[in-house]
Amino acid sequence: MELLEPPRVVERPQQDYVGIRVVTPFRGMLSKRNELLDELSAWLVQQGEDDAGPFFLRLHVIDMSGPMDLEVGVITPTPLAGDARVQPATLPAGHYATLTYRNHSLRANGTLIDWSAAQNLTFDRHTIPEGDHFTCRYELFRTDPRTEPRKTKWEVELNIRLTT
Known about the structure:
Elements: E1 2-12, E2 15-25, H1 29-47, E3 55-62, E4 67-75, E5 87-91, E6 94-102, H2 105-118, E7 125-128, E8 131-134, E9 137-141, E10 155-161
Antiparallel strand pairs: 1-6, 2-4, 2-5, 3-4, 3-8, 3-9, 6-10, 7-8, 9-10
């Protein structure tokens, strides 16, 4: 993993987005992400929306040995109407632990989790039968996946909402 910006706490405003949410096994999750990125990109073209971006992967419920509840979304400058598949939503305002990296998502997540623990920060999450439910945990793609297909080149901003 290449750390581009070190771990820190930032305050983020609420942000509108549209996304496609699915439950999929941890194994194969990134292939599903890629499919959903393509599907959401095509939907934006069909809607004539060329002012949207950046894209992100939001992890609602994490169970690394079972199903993952995830969503691929794209930030929109104003709320958009969705449809049966693409739904409007918001990323909540608040304080987030964050870092920016290139390549190796698992290592980046481990780095942010370890740093947050050392700082006595608490993630806004709780345990449910399906796994760890996060109020807001997402990886924002600073690199546009439509123009750079090599995932190892993407700049990714990892964000996990804190309780305070």
